[in-house]
Specification:
Its main location: membrane. One of its GO terms (cellular component) is COPI vesicle coat. 71% of the residues lie in helices and 0% in strands. By secondary structure, it is an all-alpha fold. It has 3 domains: 131 residues; 53 residues; 92 residues, Serine Threonine Protein Phosphatase 5, Tetratricopeptide repeat (Alpha Horseshoe). Helix 3 packs antiparallel against helix 4, helix 7 packs parallel to helix 9 and helix 8 runs antiparallel to helix 9. The chain is globular, with a radius of gyration of 22 Å. The termini are far apart.
Length: 312
């Protein structure tokens, strides 16, 4: 595998074409591209919520710090799925140790591998709700674009688009105009609604026009963008196609639930879809939010006294 093929693998990962990556044939273990390809494939398994496959893929006797970090992240995700607190704590501690290890003068690994350790550790810390630790590990002054991408997502998740924008503007001063930088800009645009989502929508449409890319992730993102632009039937089309490629994906189904409620489906079909989603994903943020609003409405309604009818 030559460097151009590795570049293509990176682009596939950035755009969420995870199923394509997990089906790749790994190069010869002696090839210089073996470990980078292995890491992208393992991370694709994790992104597909299949951490056990990642752990089966990663060698347990590797001394590579990035491979160790990928295994620890996979263990964290697996433990989180089973709500195993001890295993969660143990995997996070492994990542903390690796993050400290790579800062030592005698640490092994090249700069790319060390940067990946920070990204994988920061991702786990953010998922665990340890926001300050995640940002400290990633380094808000970093010049690693993948770390910036995670930082931007963290800031957007805590409703700080202003800080996300600062990271993007800072990155433009040193980063090449590559795909990941464009994705960062589009992600911020999706959350903030800049320019009526025009840049975000154009970016997703451009990527979906690539005949070598099959990414339900990008289809879902464009579907969400179309919901926000009130293009409901077009959004449904994207979301249906995404689910055909990645059946049962929770976030895509959540977006389809929203589109259905806005008229993409008949009322009875929308209600059936919502009931099924609540049953299958009771802890999803959308379900929790609606439940909280229903409770708040009922509480307010119980305090409201209907005035007596005026008599003639």
């Amino acid at each position: 595998m030559d460097s151009s093929e590795l570049y293509h693998i990176k682009q596939q990962f950035v755009l969420g074409a995870y199923k394509t990556l997990v089906n790749l044939t790994l190069p010869d273990p002696n090839a210089p591209t073996y470990t980078p390809t292995l890491l992208y494939q393992a991370r694709a398994h994790i992104a597909l919520d299949n951490p056990k496959s990642a752990l089966e893929l990663l060698p347990t006797d590797s001394e590579n710090v990035a491979v160790k970090a990928a295994a620890s992240l996979a263990k964290y995700v697996s433990a989180s799925q089973g709500a195993d607190k001890d295993a969660i704590d143990a995997s996070l501690e492994e990542l903390r140790d690796l993050a400290v290890e790579i800062e030592g003068d005698d640490s092994e690994g090249n700069e790319e591998e060390k940067a990946l350790v920070r990204v994988l550790a920061g991702t786990a810390f953010a998922r665990a709700g340890e926001i300050e630790e995640a940002l400290e590990t990633l380094g808000v002054d970093t010049e690693d674009l993948e770390a910036v991408f995670v930082i931007v997502h963290i800031y957007l998740s805590i409703n700080r688009p202003d800080l996300a924008k600062k990271q993007f503007e800072r990155s433009k001063r040193w980063a090449e105009d590559d795909l990941l930088l464009q994705l960062i800009e589009s992600t911020i645009g999706l959350v903030t609604g800049k320019d009526g989502y025009s840049n975000t929508s154009s970016f997703y449409t451009e990527q979906l026009g690539n005949p070598s890319l099959t990414s339900p992730h990008i289809l879902t993102a464009r579907g969400v963008t179309r919901i926000l632009k009130n293009e409901i039937q077009e959004a449904k089309s994207d979301l249906d196609e995404s689910l055909a490629q990645q059946k049962g994906d929770t976030e895509t189904t959540a977006a389809l639930v929203v589109a259905a409620g806005l008229g993409a489906l008949k009322k009875t079909e929308a209600e059936e879809l919502w009931t099924r989603f609540v049953s299958e994903h009771p802890e999803h943020p959308l379900v929790v939010d609606v439940s909280n609003k229903e409770s708040h409405f009922d509480e307010c309604a119980s305090k409201f006294e209907v005035p007596p009818l005026a008599s003639a």
